[in-house]
């Protein structure tokens, strides 16, 4: 069965960096685009970033463009999100999600908490 | 950017009754609309894609309808496990993919 397991969340000061990982299993990782989606405390879901199946194309929400980088390691079946220049408003739960048809998300991880605070 | 607006923000329904949730897009998204169920501390779950197609393993009491700018998620007979927050999401005009703000379905 499809499994997405995240790691790397934590508490970090404003301006610092963090890297989230998402280990995938149960499907051919190299065949599917992947996304990151986040949820600020008490708020709804916000799409963050997309990487194509082969890693050659990436897309970002304006709120994170230039600060976050999505990447993938096919050999490890792992998705990453590098979060730089973190701001308090980046606080929230970050979910990795498997894409279907460059559109909707058919499997999600349980989420990793990122807290940006001094 | 397409803005998705869900109504109502909170819906109180008794178990066994029908629930109807609405989602409106700021411009047409054709049928490129998905619905998700999200419970606290859990991964969101895909319910509906292409506006009306049920995802694998989703019970028949969940149904979606609509096209263009107006969409509806109907849960025909609410079970205890259905009380959660529901989000719609458009994937016609991206990036960005955009979600509605959510409808909280609570027990009456």
Please render the helix and strand layout as text:
The complex is a heterodimer of chains A (118) and B (108).
Chain A: E1 3-7, E2 10-12, E3 18-25, E4 34-39, E5 45-51, E6 58-60, E7 68-73, E8 78-83, E9 92-100, E10 104-108, E11 112-116
Parallel strand pairs in A: 2-11
Antiparallel strand pairs in A: 1-3, 3-8, 4-5, 4-9, 5-6, 7-8, 9-10, 9-11
Chain B: E1 4-7, E2 10-13, E3 19-25, E4 33-38, E5 45-49, E6 53-54, E7 62-67, E8 70-75, E9 85-90, E10 98-99, E11 103-107
Parallel strand pairs in B: 2-11
Antiparallel strand pairs in B: 1-3, 3-8, 4-5, 4-9, 5-6, 7-8, 9-10, 9-11
Detailed description of the structure:
The complex is a heterodimer of chains A (118) and B (108). By secondary structure, chain A is an all-beta fold. In chain A, 0% of the residues lie in helices and 53% in strands. In chain A, the strands form two sheets. In chain A, strands 2, 4, 5, 6, 9, 10 and 11 form a seven-stranded mixed sheet that branches. A four-stranded antiparallel sheet of chain A has the order 1-3-8-7, with no helix packed on it. Chain A starts with a strand and ends with a strand. The relative contact order of chain A is 0.31. Chain B has 108 residues and is an all-beta fold. Helices cover 0% and strands 49% of the residues of chain B. Chain B contains no helices and eleven strands. Chain B has strands at 4-7, 10-13, 19-25, 33-38, 45-49, 53-54, 62-67, 70-75, 85-90, 98-99, 103-107. In chain B, the strands form two sheets. In chain B, strands 2, 4, 5, 6, 9, 10 and 11 form a seven-stranded mixed sheet that branches. In chain B, strands 1-3-8-7 form a four-stranded antiparallel sheet, with no helix packed on it. In chain B, β4 (33-38) and β5 (45-49) form a beta hairpin. Chain B is globular, with a radius of gyration of 13 Å. Chain B starts with a strand and ends with a strand. Classes of the chains: A mainly beta (118), B mainly beta (108). The interface between A and B is medium-sized, with 25 and 24 residues.
């Amino acid at each position: 069965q499809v499994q997405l397991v995240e790691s790397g969340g934590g508490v970090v000061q404003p301006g610092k960096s963090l890297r989230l990982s998402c280990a995938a299993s149960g499907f051919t990782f190299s065949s599917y685009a992947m996304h990151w989606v986040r949820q600020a405390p008490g708020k709804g879901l916000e799409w963050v970033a997309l990487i194509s199946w082969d890693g050659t194309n990436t897309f970002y929400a304006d709120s994170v463009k230039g600060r976050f980088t999505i990447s993938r390691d096919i050999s490890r079946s792992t998705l990453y999100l590098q979060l730089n220049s973190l701001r308090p408003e980046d606080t929230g739960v970050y979910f990795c999600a498997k894409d279907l048809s460059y559109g909707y998300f058919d499997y999600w991880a349980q989420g990793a908490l990122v807290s940006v605070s001094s | 950017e397409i803005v998705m607006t869900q109504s109502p923000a909170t819906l109180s329904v008794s178990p066994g009754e029908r629930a109807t949730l609405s989602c409106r897009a700021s411009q047409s998204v054709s049928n490129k609309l998905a619905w998700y169920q999200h419970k606290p501390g859990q991964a969101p779950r895909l319910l509906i894609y292409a506006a009306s197609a049920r995802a694998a393993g989703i019970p028949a009491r969940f149904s979606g309808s609509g096209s263009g700018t107006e969409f509806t998620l109907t849960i025909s007979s609410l079970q205890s496990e259905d009380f959660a927050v529901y989000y719609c999401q458009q994937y016609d005009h991206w990036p960005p993919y955009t979600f509605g703000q959510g409808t909280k379905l609570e027990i009456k």
